[in-house]
Amino acid sequence: MTTATVSPIDLASWRNAGHKFSDVPESVKDAIRRLTAIPVDVPGDLIPDPNLSVLDFANITLPPLRDTTYKSAGQNFEFFSQDWPTDDASEMLDALPVPPRGVVARLLTDVGQSFLDGANSLKVPMSDALRLPLWSASFWSKVHLELAPLKQKWADGIAWLQSPDLSPWAHVVEPLFRSLASLSWSGYISAGGPFGLVRFPKSILPAYLSQEWLTDEHVDQMICSLTENLQDRSTLLVDTVYSRLISRAYETKTYQPSNPNDVLSRFGSKISEASGLGGIFHSHGNHWVAAVVIPSEGRILFGDPAGGKPDPSIAEPLVWFCQQNDPHTPPIDEFIYETLPCPIQDLSIDSWNCAIFSQNALAHYLCSAETPLLEKTDRRGFGDAARLSFLNDILKDYNMSKPILSVSALPVQRSDLNRFLESKTAIHTSRESQDAITKIRLPAAVPSSKKKSAKSTVKKPTQSCLAPIFQIPPLPQPSISSVPPSSTKRKLEDITNTVHLASFTHNNSLDLSLIDSDSDSDDNTQCENPQKRGRPSLDYLDQLTVELPREHGRPRTHRCVGNGCQIKWRPRTAARVLAHSKKCLLLTPELRLLAARQSADLAPGSLVASDQARLKLSPSSSPAPLSTPLTASSSISSVSSETTLSSDIKDGFNWGPRGNKQIQNSADHIVVKLFCAARIPPAVADLPEWKELFRVFSRSYVPASRTKLFDSQIQSEEAFVKKQNIALLKKEKRLSLSFDGGSIRNGGSVYTVHATTQAKRVVLLEGQECTDVSHTGEWIAELVLRVIDEIGRHRFSAVSSDNTGNTRVAREKLTEQLPQLNLPDPIHHLNNTCKDLCALEYFKPVLTIVQGTVKHFKHSNIGKEKLRKERVKQGLGAGLESAGKTRFASRIWCAVSLQRNLPALEVLCTNDEITIPDYHRYFIKNTPASLQFQIHLTQFIAVCDGLARGIQCLEAVSITPADIQLYWIAIVFRIKRALETCQLPDSVAQDIRRIINKRWRQFFIEGPTNVHLTAFYLHPDFVRSDILRQPNALAFTIQLPAAKDAPATVPPGIANPRTFSEVGKYLHHLLVIEVNHGSDDFLRQWKDKPAALIKLFKAQFTAYAQRTFPFALGLGPGQTPLEYWSTFEGSANGGILAALAMKLFSAVPHSMADERTMSSITMLNTAQRSRQKVDTVIAMTRIRSYYQAEKSIKLRRSARPHPVIRFFDVKRLRRGLDDDERDEDVNYDESDDEEFVPPNTSTTTMSPEVTASVELDSDTVLPEDSDTSEFNLASLDVQELLADGPIPRGRIPLPAVATKPDLKCDGEEDEGSFDLGGWV
Prior knowledge:
23 strands; 8% strand; RNaseH-like_sf
């Protein structure tokens, strides 16, 4: 690559030659940049004259920015043309509309490459014939980034000077206008610094003509102006640049005093000649204060306009810097704080003039005779007048030293300012001398043991300006190496400017997503820098939002910076911005993470954790008086000028202001948990009784309002809880994943994602609002991947969901990318089986009677009460149960409850104590209708009861894939027994068999995985039970799916060869995936040794099937299968099989976590709170679930941590209609109940000869008639599941323990393939 200069003529050889701009030499790039830059001889009416005064500049006419032509042109419009520019095209630029920022940014990015491709001009959508010069893009960029914003700033400032609020200060405004009339809009203003003149751009001056918070540049200008005007320069002044350098050196301890090449060292060399070090400093990240360090006297003067306490983070670096450059500087603990007289700043009426007041305090200290201290600044308008006076001084000095215009500007003398200061309605000039400085000593965090601390004596100042009027809470200190937020404010023009600079280099990739997202709104204004009030905005808010254009006088509006997001805020509050941004999918992952972290740091739980951490670090010591010398670790947040600070800790809290703050944080945290755990309505937070409750116990605690509680504290607590959950899950492995969708009452949609640990702790990972998106399988998969990427994909081993079309596709896409077990939810599958059975025409009449009867009692209080008394009299147990839309198998449980209460209903109906409309005749004793109804009800329950009980059992979080297989076997056997004993018509029995066959085939044969049978076989108890023993010809059996090939030859001693072969094939398939794509280190070490791996796997699996060493023993007392297999983890004799088994038994094979979360949301989102948003209910649900999981659960000694629920246990889990909490809840919504349509009673019959209307599977018998089946439905385990109570069972004798097999691998086995091969 050559660096020689390339003349414009030489560029011809580079054009139309297929070159890429990023690859050409830098000299060629520079030449192209010069050609596409604004020429020097540009027409004068395009760029304003640099000597134009700011008053005239504010009234110039710029090319229009409001135009829709570029919008209609679309994104594909080709701007570059090989035609030459039209004659006089440059003169037309001032009348042509300026394209939006996004378009200009793209033009600047592409102009270099387009020039090499032969482009000579630009064309615009409004004219096909007009061709503009290529430098037009640079001109448009200058209009957007410089001219239009600066023009609007000056125009707003001049308009503010003419506002009625400043009419009392006409004697200040009038000379300022004269100065502005002689001030050019372009260029710099110089002021004296420690090493010469410092230039400040005039573009920063409009901030003085506003109520905008002054930035670092303005403070540096104040320091340089003071330095230049000081006659006695014994005090060395520090600007913000040196202040940050000193703080960084203090933090890193890398300062070298004698380094002449270091600018900080050269600055420090002046300290030995100076009497002090002072300046205006940034305190707590949002406030300007004045401070002076006098090393020779051991004093630190601190002046805070808001009356705040001294900030050690300012004083300590300054004292340390003095010590490094002057060895006579005393230690930090010998310094004392003294109050620097400072004007008062009433933050309730003026929060933007702290820099002006700090400058006045510092100037008054340095030259008290010439600069009186401002007074009455706690009254409205005084601070603004002082700001204008300071600007007037700057312009006076500048105009006197270098007049620019021919217009004669009358010089503004110091007497004008004095007249302003001496006016009766303005600022009083009388001041005490410097001797009136009040001395205040700060306590040390760790008192010196060698030096006694004297009692402090506070000498109060004689003037009222020193009285603290506002307590600034201690805020998190900004990083020493970072720029304060005031100098890093990011407005829209700053964003675009960054993009512009990056694009103009032509060698950086440009992300236009941010610019394009706002291009439609940015071209509707000529200014994006309206007047700002108050303190500077937080930096992260400027990253998450962008300010929209506004008309003068209208409130400021911000929009989410996400590409295409239309969420807006007026005003912009941190709580609402963070609540939206942490979940906005249109933001980048980095910005979402930034929002989540910032929100978590503001959470009550985070504040309480910080308080507890500080308490652990705080030593218990005697009270430290206020006169304790200052140390480097002194804390000023708990200093009081009227009390004695104690470091004692009582009842877990500090004393004093810090203790009050800790109590506030703890109480806020408890309130947040209470509202979420008890699902308290938001309106309670604003009740007077709620606030009075806390006033009884503590008058210092003020509970949060409803808005703050729900919009700020709960949202931030959710972010904190999510952060804690992620930290917890990052320590886990073999996590189970589940997801599902739902909706709330206002129509909003939500998708939840859960993770379950091996210890069966369920964590709500995400609750994503998705009302306005299509819930496709691709979208769901992307959502899940985005969520688990925060934890680590390698930590998840299984994924489960229901089997709807989109969730099934999502599971398939997830398992394609990750080595996870694909587990369709068995409970939804069983519930669909129940629906199929309930849809049979034979059962519809009985279900109509059941639901109609139950609904009658729901609306008849007298009938319900009579039924309750009668069933209690007869000892029938629980009452009726209603059928709900969101309850599994609810129709079946409704029928069971009616059968249980039939004796009481018959007594009441026969004696005419109650009347059930339409169905009364079915409950009169010994009538044909009642007997027929009882028969059909018994038949329905006999067929469906096993499914309902199986669903209840499988909902347990401790269920494993092996249990799914076991419960299905029990359900099939129960249905088989019902078909044999209930005397159902043959056609109905045939339809039932079709349904069961179809559902069995869908789940176990045509399903995505064979994990259930495999886990069943790897269950140490099941493989030893009589379920898999070879049954005799008369036993009830269930047949496995037929193999395509003949059964493989298996080793001797295998009792179930077909099952052994099927399970072995699946385990081999799973093993190969885990070795090549999994994260198990033990298995991955075999990746280069496939033959040895397969040999060991076959040996271990054979030993397990033969029940020989090391698998001779089954589960121990209270031991789970996962605990059993974990004993073999990493071992030579069982490690390979154990790794696969642990993956299977760690998996949670259902998505009940999502169902429980939606149930919790339903109870929270009641009918009276139907306007709640998705974010609110998800936040409260997440907080509730987290803190419930944190509670320690007390178990009885006899309790098992992971019990296997039997069918007879289900009776104790049901509740009657009388116990249904919804009947007593005013928030109960009847729409929750399943819709019931009363039938035409004249046509309701109980005819058994009804043909099913739904075409089902073609099979007509259950899979039970094969003599070669290896499942024994008459086994003790199946009977125990189905029994009405616990049954005694003897222990199955174990086989004799075989000798330890030789599992060594030959060295030549390191090569080969992963093929399974034969077992023998």
